[in-house]
Write a structure and sequence with these properties.
By secondary structure, this protein is of the alpha/beta class. It is built from eleven helices and eight strands. It has a single domain, classed as Protein of unknown function UPF0759 (TIM Barrel). An eight-stranded parallel sheet has the order 1-8-7-6-5-4-3-2. The chain starts with a strand and ends with a helix.
């Protein structure tokens, strides 16, 4: 099964580009769920929500709709294992409703490929035992076949990314190391990737031919995984939603999704 969605859904500049201009904030998620069957929640990285926040999101979406949730920064950037308890309590409503598809653990560039960090990765399944886990690396030192073998051994998924071909950035791999295949389309905005505070790096609309590059890759990943999740993180001006719908249509034409 291949599922396509976006990284986040609540953006003011999506009105008019994806959402109707007059839609109310409390209607956004239900509208989104009419068009996609999964969403990646990123706000959980910045702060751990109260359980009622997740419970409300579950209620506003239909049966079968899934959530991928980004691990809190305490887990990935501070390596604070004590944060898992509060995070797990927050996710309980989604787990109980069988709506939590998995947890994305996005590590910073400073997370190097060394023994202490590999040992820390090995603890993730212990701290988050109730859902599939996917790891996103930002440091190319992890781009090794041994990394893929390590993740497979520990039952961790590998997050593939699409981003500019700039020195030091992660390459466009299509790798499956668990029952889950995972891809994040960040942007190919090479010109603005390092400009200013980096806020403009995700302001990018993928061209059709760029999306087409991922059709055979997605098909291969689908053959190797039980579920493949594709998320568009080029969030500016509704670009993510536009590209996600376009990519879904491409996959439908190929018969990869119904």
């Amino acid at each position: 099964m291949v599922h396509v969605g976006t990284s986040g859904f609540r953006y003011k500049d999506w009105r008019g580009a994806f959402y109707p201009n007059d839609i109310r904030d409390e209607e956004l998620l239900a509208y989104y769920a009419e068009r996609f069957d999964v969403v990646e929640l990123n706000f959980t990285y910045y702060g751990i929500p109260k359980p009622h926040v997740i419970e409300r999101m579950v209620r506003r979406t239909p049966d079968g709709f899934q959530f991928w949730v980004k691990a809190n920064q305490a887990t990935t950037h501070q390596q604070d294992r004590s944060a898992a308890a509060e995070f797990n309590a927050a996710m309980a409503p989604a787990v109980e409703a069988d709506r939590l598809a998995g947890i994305l653990c996005q590590f910073p560039h400073s997370f190097y490929n060394n023994q202490p960090n590999r040992a820390y990765l090995a603890t993730l399944k212990e701290d988050f035992p109730y859902a599939p886990l996917v790891v996103e690396f930002r440091n190319i030192d992890w781009v090794k076949a041994a990394t893929h073998g390590f993740l497979r051994h520990h039952g961790l998924g590998y997050c593939c990314v699409d981003e500019p071909k700039l020195e030091g950035l992660m390459p466009r791999e299509s790798v499956v190391t668990s029952s889950v295949g995972y891809v994040r389309f960040h942007s190919r905005n090479a010109e603005k990737w390092y400009a200013g505070d980096g806020a403009e790096r995700y302001n990018y609309l993928y061209k059709t031919e760029e999306l087409q590059e991922w059709l055979p890759r997605t098909e291969e990943m689908d053959a190797d995984a039980e579920n493949v999740y594709i998320f568009f993180n080029n969030c500016h001006a509704g670009h993510a939603a536009v590209n996600a719908e376009e990519f879904k249509n491409m996959l439908r034409e190929m018969g990869i999704i119904g």
